[in-house]
Amino acid sequence: MQGRVRAGEYRTDQGKVKSDGDKSDPMSTMYIPALAAFGGSAFGAVSTIVSGWFSGRRKRRERHHARSFSTREHLYHSFIEEASRLYAEALVKDQTEIPQLVSLYTLVGRMRILSSNEVVQAAERAGHLIIETYLSPNRTFIDLPRFIEEMDPLRAFGEACRRELIELAAE
C-alpha cells in the first residue's frame, strides 16, 4: 500500500509522491517563461493603448484650444468693427440706430459666454460710451482738439482682448 498524500503533495504516474514546491518538476519550470512572455506582451499592449489615449486626448485639447482662440479673435474683430462704425455715426448723427445697437449687444452677450469678465466689462463700457455719444450734441471737425482723448473709445477693450488672447495662447 502506498503512503498517504498530504496537503501540498501529489502522486506522479509512477506512483511517487511529490510536493508542489519540488523544483525538479518540468511543468513548473515551463510556466515561468510563459508567464513572463505573457506579462510582457500584456504590458506592451496596455502601454500602447494608454499612450494612444493620452496622445489623442492632447490632440483634441489642442484643437479645442485653437478653435477657442480663433472664435474669440473673430468675435472681438466683429465687435470692434461694429462699435467703431456706430461710434463714428454717433459723432455726427442724432438718431440712434437701435437695430445696430442690439447687434452690438448681441456680440457682448456672446462675449459673456466665451470671454473673461475684464473683456466683457470693457465691451459694456464701449457700448455705454456709444449710447452717450448718440445722446450728446453732434461733433464737427472744429471740436476735434477738445475730444481727441475720446477718439479711441475701444482702447480699453482692445487691451483687455490682447491680454486675454496672450493668456490663452500661453496655456
Describe what you observe in this structure.
- By secondary structure, this protein is mainly alpha-helical.
- The chain has one domain (27-170).
- It is 70% helix and 4% strand.
- It has four helices and two strands; from the N terminus they run ββαααα.
- It has helices at 26-92, 98-114, 117-135, 155-170; strands at 9-11, 17-19.
- Strands 1-2 form a two-stranded antiparallel ribbon.
- Strand 1 and strand 2 form a beta hairpin.
- Helix 1 (26-92) runs antiparallel to helix 2 (98-114), helix 1 (26-92) runs antiparallel to helix 4 (155-170) and helix 3 runs antiparallel to helix 4 (155-170).
- It is rod-shaped and about 120 Å long.
- The mean pLDDT is 80.
